[in-house]
Each structure stands twice: as C-alpha cells, then as structure tokens.
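Sequence in, structure out.
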Amino acid sequence: MPNLTLYHSAPSRSSVVLWMLEEVGAPYDVKLISLQNGDNLKPDYLAVNPLGKVPALKHGDAVVTEVAAICAYLADEFPDARLNIPVGTPARGVYLKWLFFGPSVFEPAMTDRAFPRKETPRRMALGWRDFDQVLDVMSAAIAKGPWLMGEQFTAADVTIGADLRFGMTFKLVPERPELASYVARIAARPAAQRADAKDKEFAGG
C-alpha cells in the first residue's frame, strides 16, 4: 500500500500536486474531496488541514499542505526523480526562488489584474509587483529555456508551468511567444498528460 496519499479535488490547485506526483513516479493513493459537497469542511478533513483547503499530502506520518511546499517536499524526498537542485548546490537558491514565485508573486499579481480593487493599494504594501513587471521577469527567465533551470526540468517548472497553463486557458495571461512555447512543452510532458487524464476521470468526464 503506498505511503503517499493526496487529498484532491478535480480540478483545483491540488491538480498541480497530482502532476507533481506523476513526475516523481512513486506509487500514491488519491482521496477525493468534493468541495461542492463541503467535504473539505468536515471534521475528518479539517483534522488534516484546518484551513479546509486542498491539496494536502500525507507521507507516512507527515502531513504537508500548500502547493509549493508539497512540490518542494516531494522533490527533496524523492531525489532520484531529479526534480530538485540539491542542498549545497549554488543554483539551489535560484531554484527555490522560482519554486515559490508562482504562488507568492505570480498568482497574486494575476488575481489583482483579473479582479481589480476599488482603490489601488500602496505599492510597497504588497509582496508582489505589477502584473506586467512580473510577467517580464518570468518571460526573461523562460526565454533562456527550455526550463527555468536550463536543461533540467524541476519542481519549479511544475509550480510556474501550472500557473501559466491556467492563466492562458482562462485568458488571464497574454500568449507571448516564449510563454506559449513553454506551456506547449509543459503540456507535452507525459506526466502532465497522465495527470490531466486522471483529473478528467476523477471529475467524471
């Protein structure tokens, strides 16, 4: 019996971790959580994640929540998959920056653009920057390709790639040539395709 269990709602942010698990290649179980039915707010799940959010990952006795944290954890726990930059390697700092850039900078900037505030907040009050500036920084890194860390695909590409795929699907991100090419490379990965197929099955479609 696998000692990895993903608490998952299809589709949702937990789909990112489903893809990451496919990249890792270790056996895992999926426990489906229906957000529509309020499964995430029931006592048994709140005991796993008191915020009532998905995803959550159980690995033996460890419980990890938050997409980027789970991806970082899996990359380090399963080094044979070569999805991390090891501790002690100079490039690990850049890898960690991109790994957490998606949920901490890109997603909030994209959300601000999609759902503008009535009053513009003070620039320095936010932990991110203007959407176009954020996109310029990402585009410059991705243009060096094929992946954020050069030739090596890492967990950072999972977090950034998933956000870009989502953003382009819902027309929240302009299809700059370098970004469109990157998203096409992401979509062509067998692990991403396996995760997509499983999500369709989980969602009943």
